[in-house]
Structure formats: structure tokens, C-alpha cells
Amino acid sequence: MPNQPLTIDAVNRMDEVAFVASFGDIAEHSPWVARAAFAEAPFADHAALVAAFHHAIESAPHDAQLALLREHPDLAGKAAIAGTLAPESYNEQTGAGLDRMTAEEFALFTALNNRYRARHGIPFIRAVKGSTKAQIIAAFQERVENEPEVEFATALTQVGRIIRFRLEDRVAA
Q: Among 45, 74, 124, 127, fewest CB within 10 Å belongs to which?
């Protein structure tokens, strides 16, 4: 990830290989999203870049969307414990305090993660940037009993928020 955000002009000068190399990890382990977004280049502005990523996900077949959702790690889950989170996921989770939980909080997250996955077949996904542990837990508890199709749509919306946040960090508005 570059130290200084790229300009939209720099993004528009990229070929597909450079674009995917720069943004292939924006959507958790799913470079196909960046490849699909690149098809909408050149981008008029930052908002158009974000919209291209959102459109790539929205227009993907259900199976591709499901695979994308399943690539996301559990919040405060096994990947976090093992230290194998993608760098941006790590920063987002630690920024929300998920690396500093009490034993009770960790047990609650584990139980909610397991219950959510069993009911919905996907991990609980929330753009946690700017959230507190309490806000995340409240959202988790509110959403765990939703119908699976509602959660599928909500998870895709949250992935869109995550992508927007990540692009804000990489490309100047």
C-alpha cells in the first residue's frame, strides 16, 4: 500500500495489470472485483472509482458474491488470533479495539460468530472503521436473527462500505 494516496490521474494511467496489482486486495482476497472495476476506467473522479467497485460486486453472479463474502474473516476470530489477517483487516479490527478484549468479550464474539455462520453460511461482516466494540456487538446481536437473504444483502452493503474506506486511504478524493 502506498504511503501517499494516489491521484485519480495516476489511477487512470494504470493498465489493467497495474490496477489489479494496486487494488486487487481491496475486496478481501478477491482480485476479480478490481478486474471488473477496471472495465469502467477511466474514472472521472474518486466517486466514480468507488462506484466501479460497487458495480463490480452488484453485477456479479450470486455465487461470486457468496465467495466474496466467505473470504472475509470473522471479527476477532481465528485469523486475528493466528495473526493471519490481511493488513487492512488487521488495522480495521485493531482500530475498533478487537485486539484488546476481555475474556468475556472474546467468548461473546466467538459465540456470535459461530451462531451467525451457522444461521447465514457467511461470516458477520461490518465495516468496523470508526466503530467501538460495543457498537459492533450491538450490531451483531441485532443482525444475527435476521433472515439469511436480508443478511446476504446487508453483508454486500457492508463490503461496499469497507471498499469505500479502503479506497479513501489509497486514492486522494
A: 45
